[in-house]
Fold each of these.
Amino acid sequence: MRREAPQRLADYGPLLFPAGMLIVFFVIPFATMIAVSFFQRDPAGFYSTAFVFDNYARFLSLFFGKVLGFSLFLAVTVAICCVVIAVPFTYLLSRARRRTQVLWLVALLSVLSLSEVIIGFAWSTLFSRTAGITNLLVAIGLMSEPVALNPSFGAVLTAMVYQALPYTVLVLYPALVRLDPTLTEAARTLGASPVKSFFTVVVPALRNTIVATLIMVFIFALGSYLLPQILGRPQHWTLSVLITDQAIYQSNMPFASAMAVFLVLVTLGLVALTLIAGRKGEAA
Amino acid sequence: MSGLTLQNVTKEFGSFTAVKNVDLTVPHGTFVCLLGPSGCGKTTLMRMIAGLDLPTAGAINLDGTDITRVPTHKRDLGMVFQSLALFPHLTVGENIAYSLRIRGAGKEDQKKRVDELLSMIHLSGYADRPVAKLSGGQRQRVAIARALAISPKLFLLDEPLSALDAKLREAMQVELRQLQQRLGITTIVVTHDQREAMTMADTVVVMNGGEIRQAAAPVEIYRRPADTFVADFIGMTNLIDFSADSAGRATVLGAVVENLAIPAGLSRGVLSVRPEDVHLTAPGHGAIEARVTFVRDLGGTIETFVEAGDKQIVAVSMPNARPDVSVGQNVGIRLSPDACVVLKS
């Protein structure tokens, strides 16, 4: 393996393609979006070139504050739910027989192939009064009559966790497979019950992986805009929904851009905070 | 009785029998080595004693209590793993205090015990270091201290020294034996290194194919091996076929060995003769006829390889008794009856 720094310009050759792709598909659109966020909206047409802060000023209101707060809260909740479910699940999976592991991983990958729209409508059927899971509960005598479970916060949360869980498992899986199984055995010989050894050895040993996974799911959930619309009430709509609404239905590109830029900044800020907090915890 | 007793312990993995009908008694305070080639079932046997694997059949007793089905964390034992399995997210002190913390000991008690153990393993002042910053030998000691923190009833070590280099390993063997004698703790070590077993153990248990072939004191194992496997596995030996007549007189490679007691009814078998007991003399006079094929002078010892019939025999001598032979020379071998162990073939 090469270790020395690149010497000549030609040594940077392999970087050209990924760099080009990043510039064309990320840097240019993002820069355009930042520029547009300062433009002036033209109610008659689209927008006109300008440099105004109106768009940013507009969401310094209680309404957008609430939406932003709810978006962050929803994303954090989804991330925590996913990690809480996925860590023990993946741990048990990594200790299972090879065949069992392959079957589960294939099943999880097939969930990944479903689009957000399909997931949304599938859950809205499952949560409906006429064909939903409550009919099963009625059949086995746990409920007296079927009810509709959506639109509700629970429905949004369930579908988003369902959507993000395969990613969470797949990100955690390699780390858990690599974890030395004798660590938990050692904990057991030292007097820790299996549950205690999971919390005192597996979780702390995987701290960094778990934090990274939380951040990944958080960002993934923040971008969700279909599921809240399909399964939630308007008060469950996230900032992503409003951005879509402004950009597509209200034709207010400058305002949509400003919200998008703001969302990116807030997200980056939160990730940075988490990383700093993580580093401090490590040093202590 | 106090100590560890295994009765008829068997472990099957599917159709494979890893451990077959093992009976073993380890009296309180003794040091036992499970010795054998890889795949002989010694590690599986230790894992069953620790409760990490459950026996398919049989019973395990510790100090008079049946612990066969008691989960590992309720057995009050200390175990050192081959990989050491130190917790990477904890410091040296936290690693050692783990078993105390799990049992709810107070912070002061934990600290006191950790300091005690650190001074025992000559690592005082290392409590706050991360384990990743330690050398191989130091980690080894920390793993031992962690296993001993609660003063366990049983101290188990699975190939504990295999990761260390040869010199350090020899030093740790002596240290471990001295520590065990000072603490008087019942100790079982799994190893494939016979030097390790001979150095440390009160009793060496030689295993092969999931069965115990012999369990005895180290010197006994060396001088009086129970079968050809043990004779061959422990140290170097010459295994030579013999035949015996109805009067019990043994003939080896065409020569008669006088005064060798052969069990009645045994007409043929194998003699195990240690290389240091093979004495080369002048040919003739009823000695086994042989020809020198190679001489290896290692400085401390001299190994002389001779061929008698089709059989290669090794003789080892000290420099002060250097045999005056050269390659190609015809020599005679005389076997003293005390040096021969009669085994069934």
Amino acid sequence: MIEGILIGLSTALSLTNILMVMVGCFAGTIIGMLPGLGPMTAIALMIPITYGFDPSTGLILMAGVYYGAVFGGSTSSILLNAPGIPGTVATAFDGYPMAQQGKAGKALAIAAYSSFAGGTISAIFLLVAAPSLSKVSLAFRSPDYFALMILGLTAISAFSSKGQFLKAMMMVVLGLMLATVGQDSLSDITRFTFNNMNLTDGISFVLIVMATFAMSEALTIIFRGKDPNRAAKQISLTELGSIKVNKEETIKMAKTIPRSSILGFLIGVLPGAGATIASFLAYGMERNYVNEEEKQKFGKGSVHGLSAPETANNAACSGSFVPLLTLGIPGSGTTAVMLGALLGFGIQPGPRLYQTNPEIFWSVIMSMYIGMVVLLILNLPLIPYIARILAVPRNYLIPLILFFSVTGIYLMSFNNFDIFLMIGIAVVATFLRLYDFPMPPLILAFVLGGLMEETLRRSLLISDGSPNFLWDRPITLIILLITITIVGWQIFSTFRKKN
Amino acid sequence: MRISPTKFISLLFLVLSVFYLYTAYNIQVFAFDENAPFNARTFPIYLGWAGIILSSLKIILPEKVTTEVNHKHLDYKSIIYLIIISLIYAAVILKIGYFISTSLFLFASYYFLGERRWGLMFILSFPFVAAFMYLLHGLLNIYLRDPFLKYIGVMG
């Protein structure tokens, strides 16, 4: 492991990669800060930039963007009460009241220190857990992988559906359907192309991400007449106050951070669960832990209440890399985007990544830590200035997002069919979003579609077409039982609401 | 009887799933693969049935959580303009090249979204795209095809 860490450090600490972490964190902070634009959009917009890079550099840039976007989301939560991403909604519960009391600088500093601590602790967990889990996951066979993917898709549907599980499951099926367009990987038979040559290679992953996130989010902002910058003028005029944290507040944070980090990391590892669930659970758990006097301060600017979700959401980000790096199966929409980007570089993440491309495996882990340091020492002092980006009017912001989306696709294929297709998918996605059909399950399903068909093919061929493979191996059976429990819980909670 | 938008979308999804399933059954597979436990049709057939079952459930079951959208607050005009501009952009990008089409797209988008500061609109379109192209093509060595700039000798 020490050798791996050294390989990772030497790659991550090269001048180019340090620069990429800094650029990534900075760009991610800016994009994440804008309400409506989250880490998936931020990473998607970065994909065209990474075309000319080697895989480790590209992945390091995207990891930096991911952390930066989460950090940026907290900033708009605290300053505007308008969370940039769902994972920072809980941050606003106590961060915004603190800002209203004239302690915006302090709230931002607490958020930054908590994010740093949460991210660092969970990066250490990842350092220890990932290699061990990689070895364990080598024992996984096709039926286990198939079951695991079913679990991941069910879990993301359950967690991202805001109580509308069926809608999310429909999006999963739609994502899988889109993944079947083009040549079948084994027989080379073309499917669902309707004799259109442009569809023979299938629909590009970048196109789907750009359409359903970057472009559709931009169109949604226009469509809903939302102006993410409406309150921005107040920010640039408002004095953010001191960013110094006193001894009493430090002690409070020191108590909250360890437990929220552990919780956040564990939630992040679970397929489908991510920063949003981690932050809400950490907030709830913290409220139960503190004494009665502190409990009364929750929702009115409590240090515990701000520190807990901020620690947990960053810890969950590191945790979400565990299934990606060890199993090759992303646990969240954001890591699904990263998986797609990795596949674009010709790299298949999974248990063997640890052996075949150790420099990528370790440099990503090490760059997470560097990213945390960058966020703390670079972004925190610059926050009052970065926050002014919110003053960019949407009249400029939206066309620029559309421009980056189209450029990304144009660079990839140099044909206009893909641009037309992207616009079409983006328009459909905009209407689906309007009626709360979630997009992350669609992305995850699209990314996993090929692998899922492949593992199902192997499983069925080995079992000679019998469904016995679903319960022959204990691991498969356990994973499927967990899946059935999640589905059962969704049905139960639906009926409970009814009654 | 008034059908809710969610149920209407589910109905469209049902139609899509039926069409997908029909197409899946018609995928031509090799003769020796016809009776294999798994062929190019198998997975799409499962998906088609899954789509039909899920969308039917959504249509049949009563809605517990309804999504209300106030259409009066939706800016249809701007979004239609933006989509039309994007479609025109996609149609001309290969003919007139990346630089001119992108710059015009940005300029037109700013205008239709209500911007009237001409100087800023110009800077954030033509020089901005030129700088971006230099970043990609000149610094990051990412090939950017532009027949027009090649023709006038700006790009190699």
